[in-house]
Q: What sequence folds into this?
């Protein structure tokens, strides 16, 4: 297994779409139709309440491209039942090669900082019941399981 090197974190930009599309497809174990996903991605980049960040690896060889090895999204929204601004982590994925290298922790901390500065009183997230490693990770990062999330498909 190789080690992730020369990492930096930055807001996502339009040109990152293909890499993020691949990460989201891997997270959900399905390939999403490109154009609808691109429309949502680009619209959300323009939304001041949505924050997309990437973890980028740059291998120090001549002309080596950057590689996006992680992605996180945060949506800030005022919730009536909290009477306050809430942050919601909607996606967090790290490439398998780079898991266990504290990239997820760094991305979570970045989003928590953004939420705190915006005045959010809490950050929430949900994860699929089958993602046991993710459950352990979020608990280690101070997240408590306090709700059940119910989903109903409308198709």
A:
């Amino acid at each position: 297994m190789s080690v992730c090197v020369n990492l930096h974190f930055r807001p996502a930009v339009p040109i990152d779409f293909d890499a993020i599309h691949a990460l989201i497809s891997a997270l959900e174990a399905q390939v999403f139709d490109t154009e609808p996903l691109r429309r949502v991605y680009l619209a959300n980049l323009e939304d001041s309440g949505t924050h997309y960040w990437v973890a980028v690896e740059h291998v120090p060889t001549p002309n080596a491209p950057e590689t996006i090895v992680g992605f996180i999204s945060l949506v800030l929204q005022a919730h009536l039942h909290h009477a306050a601004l809430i942050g919601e982590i909607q996606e967090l994925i790290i490439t398998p090669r780079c898991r266990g290298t504290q990239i997820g922790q760094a991305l979570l901390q970045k989003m928590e900082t953004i939420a705190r500065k915006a005045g959010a009183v809490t950050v929430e997230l949900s994860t699929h019941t089958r993602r046991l490693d993710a459950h352990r990770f979020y608990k280690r990062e101070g997240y408590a399981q306090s709700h059940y999330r119910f989903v109903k498909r409308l198709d």
